[in-house]
Amino acid sequence: MAELEENLYSFADYAEIESYISVAEVEEQKTWAGYVQQMAQEQNIELDFLALNKLYQLLVRESENRFLINASPLKLKEILQDASTFAEKTALSAVDFEGIFQQKLAQYGFLKETNLCRYFKRASLCRNARRNCWTN
After folding, report:
1. H helices within 16-93, ranges in order?
2. Recorded E.C. number(s) (predicted)?
3. Does residue 88 form part of some domain?
4. What CATH code is carried by the domain that includes residue 21?
5. 1 within a domain of the structure (yes/no)
């Protein structure tokens, strides 16, 4: 994790920079937990064990693999900052992470629904336009 520059992770979608790490072994889990705690401290955020565990669970949901989770510094900072902002405090709990996760789900659900509506509206307009071309 520490081998790569933090700002390179923004190019991960376009390059072969791996942002997922294995946490299958106890030592890997401890390393990940220390890494997250260090990032939190750099942002003046406190995490207890339950908060760290909830963050792990949320990352597992995202990766759909309990032994492979996202360790991108940008992603982790975003989650930590969002949770702190959402909770309006710097000592975060498991409830705070669950709250931000639920907020993101609602936000993504709304965007997905809006995009689907736009898609179907466009498809309907295209069908109507084709129908009008054939009838004229």
Report:
1. 26-42, 49-63, 73-87
2. 3.4.21.-
3. yes
4. 1.10.8.60
5. no
pLDDT, tens digit (0-9, with 9 covering 90-100), for 3-58: 555 555 555 554 445 688 899 999 999 999 999 999 999 999 999 999 999 999 99
Share of the chain above pLDDT 70, in %: 66
Question: Coil, strand, or helix at residue 70?
Answer: strand
Q: What range does the domain containing 105 cover?
A: 6-135
Reading the block at residue 56, the tokens are 């792990």
Alpha-carbon distance of 10 to 103, in angstroms, equals: 23
Sequence-ordered list of residues with C-beta below 8 angstroms from that of 41, at least 6 positions apart, any chain: none
Reduced to 3 states (helix: H, G, I; strand: E, B; else coil), residue 68 is strand
Per the domain annotation, does 97 fall within a domain?
Answer: yes
Which of 81, 74, 70 lies closest to 45, judged by CA? 81
Report how many domains make up the chain.
1
